[in-house]
């Protein structure tokens, strides 16, 4: 019985550790795709801040679908001259690149994205891991090295 309990506790703690959210990541959105403030700050010549939302309750309708992820707010950027200079990809395509079923959720810095039609800027990926999550092969994306 002790072995069973020990095994359960070990697996539970590993699962919790794997899902730990990184509170330091500052998500941002531009042209309906997710990036980070850090990424967009490197492209200042092509972007301008449109609005900073500090709480999900103030999100416009277009960002409400991300309210469970952007719990600490989000910065919305706009491309100058309306011209997007960055590549965008749906999470489903990124899953396929890693031989993961397209509809499996993706974790970005511990935040779960279940809608794999969500567009992101792949430049935010600094490191990736594939792990077993709830019996499914799952992609974990990290925006820092």
Alpha-carbon distance between the termini? 41 Å
Order of helices and strands: HEEHEHEEHEEEEE
Q: How is the main sheet built? A: 4 strands, mixed
The whole-angstrom Rg is: 17 Å
| Residue share in β-strands | 25-35%
Total DSSP E strands: 10
Strands of the widest sheet, in order across it, are 2-1-4-3
> What is the overall number of helices?
4
Determine the structural class based on helices, strands and strand pairing.
alpha+beta
Shape type: globular
Low-pLDDT runs of 5+ residues are 4-18
Overall pLDDT score: 85
Number of domains: 1
Roughly what percent helix?
10-25%
In brief:
The chain has 145 residues and is α+β, with helices and mostly antiparallel strands. The chain has helices at 2-18, 37-41, 61-64, 91-97, and strands at residues 27-30, 33-36, 47-53, 74-79, 89-90, 106-108, 111-113, 119-120, 127-133, 136-142. It has one domain.
Q: Overview of this structure, please?
A:
The chain is an alpha+beta fold and 145 residues long. The chain has one domain. Helix content is 23%, strand content 31%. It contains 4 helices and 10 strands; from the N terminus they run αββαβαββαβββββ. The protein has helices at 2-18, 37-41, 61-64, 91-97, and strands spanning 27-30, 33-36, 47-53, 74-79, 89-90, 106-108, 111-113, 119-120, 127-133, 136-142. The strands form 3 sheets. The protein has a 4-stranded mixed beta sheet. A 4-stranded mixed beta sheet has the order 7-6-10-9, with no helix packed on it. β9 (127-133) and β10 (136-142) form a beta hairpin. The longest helix is centred in the first third of the chain and has 17 residues, at 2-18.
